[in-house]
Amino acid sequence: MVLSYPSFVDGKSRDLMCIAKEAAQRILELRGDVIALYLAGSVARGDATPTSDIDLGAIISQREHSEVLKPPLFIKGVQVSCRLIPRMRLMDIRRIWLEDPILPFQILESIRLYDPEDILLRFKQRLEAFFKDKHLFKERIKRCLGFAEERGREVLEYLGHGISEERGVASLLYAILYGIGPAILMKAEVPPSQRRFLLRLEEACEVLDEPHLYRKVLQILGLENVSETWALGAPSILEELHKKTSYTLFRFCKPLYHKGINWLDRRTLDYVKAGAMELSVIGKHAAAVFCCMPLGARCLDLVEESAHYLPMNLRLEILIGFRRLFDLLKVDTEEILERAMRLKEVIQMFPKSL
Predict the structure, then answer these.
(1) Which residues partner with 67 through β-bridges?
(2) How far is CA 64 from CA 37, 89, 118, in A?
């Protein structure tokens, strides 16, 4: 096999590139259906931090849905995540461009590690053409806003039926993470980041000269006034929530435990905590708390999906942990509804503002 290996990296990036190369070789040995491999994320961009992980993508020949390699690889203490993408899926580039919030950016910024048939090269060239098409560009942003709008309706539905304030808040998070956020990042041509998502969003709003958008996002998330105490305590709160979720699902609902194994792995928790602590150290308190929120929301999703199988006391403990992480202990339904209305305002003003 032939693995291309960029020579421009040094220091920490060089170490991570070596690990990425080793991980690629392992994946090629583990799966005989891999026809291309690429490196994405902070290592590919050259802005990796001391606690960065490695994001790989593998194009596979099998006709199946996209998924992630389970469990993730760990090489020299570094987590290596690998997204498995069927080759047939790449045939529908328009659908990927319009519906996938991550993959187009990943491939556009990626480094090819293994591509003997130039599959990635050709796909990347087609994506670049899509990026320059104004009609498709606007349609992708419209899809992102549509996703955010659906999550906003979920909030009203959850609260209107008295189902769960926690689920309503999680829907607001997903509206920003997979809707409003990607739309802003795309318009500003700022690449997304898993742990530093909020920093990227702030940067994008500065590029667009629309700082009020960032302030509104913080309001929707309840992060407009994050204290240092909250930021420093969030990783420990997340750890407690994560442990309780893992134990409860493993004990009472193993199918869902295995379904969420990538989220429930201890090393995933450590990766998120390290990112949050890095952000706290540089005074980015809102970004530090937000770094913890998606993993906390995934814990909630798994617990709510398995609610019928779980003892009520353990489920309530997990819900309280979620509320502590999101600082909801003193937040009532009315305030969550106000956040949902702010989301609606952002969606409505977005085309005019940008």
Answers:
(1) 84
(2) 17, 9, 21
Structure token pair of residue 224: 């407009």
Instruction: Of 89, 186, 88, give the one whose Cα is nearest residue 133.
Output: 186
| Together in a domain, 158 and 261 | no
Helix (H) or strand (E) holding 21: helix 11-30
pLDDT per residue as tens digits for the range 51-93: 888 989 999 987 665 566 766 788 888 888 888 888 888 888 8
Q: Which domain holds residue 54?
A: 11-111+118-126
Q: How much is the pTM?
A: 0.83
pLDDT at 5 over 60: no
Q: Identify whether 3 is part of a domain.
A: no
Higher-confidence residue of 67 and 284: namely 284
CB 52 within 8 A of CB 77: no
Same domain, 30 and 92: yes
Instruction: Please name every residue paired with 68 in a beta bridge, in sequence order, or none if there are none.
Output: 83
pLDDT at 10: 43
Regarding beta strands 67-68 and 78-86, do their DSSP bridges make them parallel or antiparallel, or are they unpaired?
antiparallel
Total structural domains in the chain? 3
Could you tell me if residue 339 is inside a domain?
yes
